[in-house]
């Protein structure tokens, strides 16, 4: 090949080589943006969806024309692209993963949130029973570790968040009182056999117990930060039986909406006032509504779902109204401090309509 031919060949191959270099660079950049992990987690608006499919009642009152909706916050571990997007997207709230998980691994974090939701669901049913005047009894049915705490030692020789205690020293336990009874006579630190259910498996532990156990010191005695009784509400009349199947929802913030849905199923009339009612808030057995996190994201989720009313705890109301104004929604923000107050607010809307 002469010099002229070589020159022509180089010119014709240069654009292809240039294109290949840019394609390779683009692939590297996309890989960095989409697949390289970061130390951050992001909270974003989740979804709002009806509570009725999750609340099962033996005998329902007539169907409501509206609907109650719980609201969620989406938590994800973000890539570099979403980290960059957060600089201009107000709906992406970044936190360090370790701060979100609070020093726990992801599995333990999810287990704790699930246990908290189970307790919150029972509180919601009890609050609704009280509001509806339903006679009931409380029955503990499981004793669960809700916070394993900062424990030392080998895994398998300690209780972990999410563990359900089944038996201690050969005695079945389903309540704090039964745990104390099983440990009666243990006056000095010693190792005892404990059977637990962990991730749907039975696991036997040789657990070091600190010594004598008194009411209020059960968790400390078995080396964890917190134990909780899982309870069920047993109504006097079978027709008033209610259960809540929350599925993958974790945490306590759906309590208010579960209580309203339960009350609507137990009582005559349309508690929704014919409206699409979204909301959030923890609830105690006495009906007290408490504040939650992620209110900005929940306002967005409710608006996207077409909610006409958004019920919020009093301490979250100002932030909720600011976010509603920022996104230009017509959704009515209603502040409440208790279940009876939420019911009264909805009754007022019905009469006004």
UniProtKB/TrEMBL annotation:
GO annotation, biological process: protein catabolic process; proteolysis
EC number of the protein: 3.4.21.53
Sorted UniProt keywords: Hydrolase, Membrane, Protease, Serine protease, Transmembrane, Transmembrane helix
Family classification: Belongs to the peptidase S16 family.
Lineage: superkingdom: Bacteria
Catalytic activity: Hydrolysis of proteins in presence of ATP
Protein name in the entry: endopeptidase La
Entry annotation: catalytic residues: 253, 298
Domain Lon proteolytic: 246-349
Keyword Kinase on entry: no
GO terms of molecular function: ATP binding; ATP-dependent peptidase activity; serine-type endopeptidase activity
Enzyme class of the recorded protein, top EC level: hydrolase
Positions of transmembrane segments: 16-36
